[in-house]
């Protein structure tokens, strides 16, 4: 594939990585602390901003000056020390939580009307029977349609404190009168374990999307269910996982590593070392584990992969990971904004720092994917650059390397099919989602009546749907031309997977996508050899 399309997905994931997703600790400093108030450099900056505020010839938004100044300061430190403005802070924080309080629906705003995509699993709306396709017209008697307001404003109207009630008036296709739902707002889980199911009669599969506050709890429930189904081995999929809470990654690693074994250690600027050991009997210490990684597996994902690899536990499969070994600590700034400042480096049990170099600036750092791509590393294990001075040996005698990312034990090349990558971009980028929603809307009663068991055999992606999707994407102007006749089977698969996601959730969605997946096929092959 030529041009910029081939870097869309990795670039987006790399940017996501860059906002500092390891939240190993939080610290709120007292703004009256002598360390800050007595600092003459801080006083100098304050005087300059005050001078501009009071004397500059034109009116100036000094808040924006402060934001720019803070960003410039952090840019000169490292790629993962970042400033989070107050207007973004709540969203960023919510994304790393394992839940939120609300009614629990995802929706589109179509022709100034709230149309439910799906009632979120485990939320109040699902329990009350709200379905995809329902139109929410009134909330507590107040009109919600034809208001020309943003989705954020709509969300604010539907959210509220836990256990407060809201009365919704809903229009449902096929029913003449409006339906009334009295819903008590409650905790809606935001799952980070996207899928959990059996690949074979002995091999279970778990996909962790990110490490949020509830990841370990979700992971433990998934392990328990898979073991009940006969799982003796686990494929832990951390591909495209940009990281998150370090504590959650440590807890997951502890499930596979024997007590008193080192999981990782951190070292700060003064050289102080803090070690973290496996502390409890894990539920899968005696089972076989395969960890799936790729070039977009970062930070907390690398903690898990590195801890297992350095303890000679399981097998790491895929491609070299991203290479983020910096630990951030969050500090609120008192006005709703915050910074995440790098306060230490983490090291795997053998002593490896897997942070890739950032000496050439942030732009070069975040363009590292393109360097790997051009060097052929994504397609050939022999093209992976290693530094012999950063060679380490595990207790079992395996050679591992520091200097940037986790190199897998078994390499699986990236699929070089550019057409497939285009389709994957359209799927993961959300462009298929709205089109599929339109498909469902054409016969909502039928689609809502299909069971998971009947879905695979009953739903067919027709040539008409394919042609309509081609026209839809052309109108969207996303710079990606859909597909050739050769790739129509793949497009059918992706569209069907997206329908499954909107009807049944991510577990069924991932099962569809994992069919014919190269890395998963390799895991199954290895499992069958035992």
Poorly predicted runs of 5 or more residues = 1-35
Give the class from helix and strand content and strand pairing: alpha+beta
- Strand count, sense and closure of the main sheet? 6 strands, mixed
- Radius of gyration in whole Å, from Cα? 25 Å
How many distinct helices?
A: 20
The count of strands amounts to: 22
Mean pLDDT: 87
Intertermini distance: 39 Å
Keywords: Hydrolase, Membrane, Protease, Serine protease, Transmembrane, Transmembrane helix
Protein name: S41 family peptidase
Pfam family, one: PDZ_2
Transmembrane segments: 7-27
Word description of this protein:
The protein is an alpha+beta fold. Among the domains are: 5-96, no CATH class; 99-189, Roll (Pdz3 Domain), CATH 2.30.42; 418-522, no CATH class. 38% of the residues lie in helices and 21% in strands. Strands 1, 2, 14, 15, 18 and 19 form a six-stranded mixed β-sheet that branches. A hairpin with a 7-residue loop joins strand 8 and strand 9. Belongs to the peptidase S41A family. Residues 89-174 form the PDZ domain. InterPro entries: ClpP/crotonase-like_dom_sf, PDZ, PDZ_sf, Peptidase_S41A, Tail-specific_protease. The chain crosses the membrane at residues 7-27.
């Amino acid at each position: 594939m030529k041009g910029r399309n081939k870097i869309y997905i990795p670039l987006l994931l790399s940017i996501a990585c860059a906002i500092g997703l390891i939240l190993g600790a939080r610290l709120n400093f007292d703004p009256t602390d002598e360390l800050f108030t007595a600092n003459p450099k801080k006083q100098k900056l304050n005087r300059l901003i005050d001078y501009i505020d009071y004397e500059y010839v034109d009116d100036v938004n000094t808040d924006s000056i402060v934001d720019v100044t803070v960003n410039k300061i952090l840019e000169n430190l490292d790629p993962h020390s970042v400033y989070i403005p107050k207007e973004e802070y709540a969203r960023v924080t919510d994304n790393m939580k394992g839940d939120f309080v609300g009614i629990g629906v995802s929706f589109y705003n179509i022709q100034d009307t709230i149309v439910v995509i799906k009632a979120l699993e485990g939320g109040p709306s699902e329990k009350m029977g709200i379905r995809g396709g329902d139109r929410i017209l009134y909330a507590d008697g107040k009109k919600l349609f034809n208001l020309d307001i943003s989705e954020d404003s709509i969300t604010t109207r539907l959210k509220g404190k836990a256990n407060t009630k809201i009365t919704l008036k809903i229009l449902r296709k096929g029913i003449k009168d409006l339906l009334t739902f009295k819903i008590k707002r409650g905790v809606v889980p935001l799952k980070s374990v996207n899928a959990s199911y059996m690949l074979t009669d002995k091999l279970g599969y778990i996909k962790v999307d990110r490490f949020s506050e509830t990841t370990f709890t979700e992971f433990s429930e998934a392990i328990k269910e898979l073991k009940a189904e006969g799982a003796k081995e686990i494929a832990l999929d951390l591909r495209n996982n940009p990281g998150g809470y370090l504590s959650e990654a440590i807890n997951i690693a502890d499930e596979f590593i024997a007590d008193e074994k080192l999981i990782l250690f951190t070292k700060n600027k003064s050289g102080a070392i803090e070690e973290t050991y496996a502390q409890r009997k894990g539920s899968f210490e005696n089972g076989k584990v395969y960890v799936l990684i790729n070039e977009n597996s970062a930070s907390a994902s690398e903690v898990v992969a590195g801890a297992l690899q350095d303890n000679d536990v399981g097998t790491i499969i895929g491609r070299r990971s991203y290479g983020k070994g910096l630990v951030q600590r969050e500090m609120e700034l008192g006005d709703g904004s915050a910074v995440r400042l790098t306060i230490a480096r983490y090291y795997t049990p053998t002593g490896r720092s897997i942070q890739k170099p950032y000496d050439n600036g942030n732009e070069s750092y975040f363009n590292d994917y393109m360097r790997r791509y051009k060097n052929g590393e994504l397609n050939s294990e022999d093209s992976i650059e290693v530094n012999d001075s950063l060679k380490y040996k595990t207790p079992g005698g395996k050679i591992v390397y520091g200097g940037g990312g986790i190199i897998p034990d078994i390499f699986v090349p990236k699929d070089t099919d550019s057409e497939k990558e285009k389709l994957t971009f359209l799927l993961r980028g959300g462009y298929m989602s709205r089109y599929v929603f339109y498909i469902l809307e054409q016969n909502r009663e039928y689609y809502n009546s299909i069971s998971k068991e009947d879905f695979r055999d009953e739903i067919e992606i027709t040539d008409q749907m394919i042609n309509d999707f081609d026209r839809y994407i052309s109108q969207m102007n996303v710079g990606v031309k859909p597909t050739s006749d050769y790739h129509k089977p793949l497009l059918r698969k992706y569209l069907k997977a997206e329908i499954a996601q909107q009807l049944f959730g991510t577990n069924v969605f991932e099962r569809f996508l994992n069919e014919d997946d190269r890395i998963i096929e390799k895991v199954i092959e290895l499992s069958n050899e035992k």
